[in-house]
Amino acid sequence: MTEPVRVLYRHDFQHLLDALAHRGYRIIGPTVRDGAVVYDEIGAASDLPEGWTDRQDGGTYRLERRDDAALFGYTVGPHSWKKFLFPPRIRLWQADREPQGYTLRPESLAAAPYAFLGVRSCELHAMAIQDKVFMDTDPLYRAHRERAFLVAVNCGQAGGTCFCVSMKTGPRAESGFDLALTEILEDERHAFTIEAGTARGREVLRMLPTAEAGAVDLEAAERCTARAVQQMGRSMDTEGVPELLARNLDHPRWDEVASRCLACANCTLACPTCFCSTVEDTTDLTGDHAERWRSWDSCFTMDFSYLHGGSVRSSTKARYRQWLTHKLSTWHDQFGTSGCVGCGRCITWCPVAIDLTAEVAAIRDSEGGHGHDR
Fold it and tell me: Based on the structure, what is the number of domains in the chain?
C-alpha cells in the first residue's frame, strides 16, 4: 500500500537536515559559491541558495535574485553528483616494500556516508547510468553509492538549456530516491510535499514534523512540475538518433562543429554521466612506497586515445564525433540506454556555445527527417 504524501513546512525544513545528520550522514547540498550554485557540504537550511535562481543559455550562466524565498529555485549548476561518487581524483591503493615482499593497502572508506539533498530527476537518471558502468566493476563507487541517501527535488522551473522532457528523464522524479520533495510557493504559503521511495526514506520521514498532504497541496505540486515542462529551453527529436548518427559518420556537419570546438573538455567534465579516466602510478625517491591514483580524463584530449605510434583521434573533428556518437548512439549498444539525460550542462558550460541538440537537428534536417519538435 502506498503511503500518503506528506507536507513539510518551510519553518520546519531544518528538521530534515537534523534527521539526516542524526543518522550519521554527511549532507551534501546546493549552496552559492563563486557566482554559481554548487554542491558542497552543508549543515543548515541557511546554507541553501534561498532566493536565488540561474539563467542559462549556450555558453552563458549567471545567478539572479528571485522575488521569493525558494530554496530550490534554480535548475542545475556546473557540478554534478558524480564528483562525490566518482571523484575527480582519488587514490586507489598504496603499497610499501617489506623485507620479504610488499604490503598493499586499498583505499579506506571510513568516511561517513553521503546524504545528497536536492537531486533532480535528470540527475537520478544520470546516477542510474553510472551505476551500469561502475556498480559491478568499481568497489569504491559501489560502496559510496550503496550508502548514499538521496533526497530528490522535483523541478519547479526549467533552464534555458534543459531538455529532460525530450529524454524522458524529468522534470518529476518517479523512482530512484529515498525522499522526494516538491517546493510549493503559492498564496504566501511556503511548504514542501514529501514522499518516501524506500524503507529508509520512510524512517527519516517519520522523524519529521509533517502533516498529510491535502488536495490543495497535491494540486500545487502538480502545477509546479507542469510549469517546468512548459519552460524547457531546448528539445531533441530522439526517434532513431542512434541510427541517424551511425549512418552519418562522414557528414560535413562534423567539420563545421570542429571549426568552433576548442577541445577544452568542459562538456565531459560537467556531464553527469561521462566517466573517462586515467590511472597514474607514483613512487617515492627510495622506491619503497608506491601509490596508484585515478583522475578524470576526457575523450577530447589528444592523449586519451594514444596507442603506440600515435593518437587514434588526432583531430578535433574525430574527438567531437566520438563524444557525440558515443553519448547518443553507441552508448545504447554498451549499456542499453542513452548516455544523455537532458540536463543541458554541456551546452551551458561550452565556451563557444556548441549545442548537441542543434547538431543532431542539423544532421537530421539534412536527411529531410523529423523536425526539431518539443
Answer: 2
206-210-21 Cα angle (round to 5): 55
Q: Name the domain boundary from 208, 230, 252.
A: 230
Residues 6+ apart with CB under 8 A from 369: 237, 240, 244
Residue 96 in any domain: the answer is yes
Compute the distance between CA of residue 272 and CA of residue 267 in angstroms, rounded to an integer. Answer: 10
CB 356 within 8 Å of CB 340? yes
Last residue of a domain, one of 210, 230, 250: 230
- Residue keyed to cell 524565498: 69
Q: Which amino acid is at 13?
A: F
Question: Which residue type does 195 have?
Answer: E
Q: What pLDDT digit, counting tens, does each position of 306-345 carry? A: 777 777 788 999 999 999 999 999 999 999 999 999 999 9
pTM (two decimals) = 0.93
239: its cell numbers: 526517434
**Structural domain boundaries enclosing 77:** 6-230
DSSP 273: S
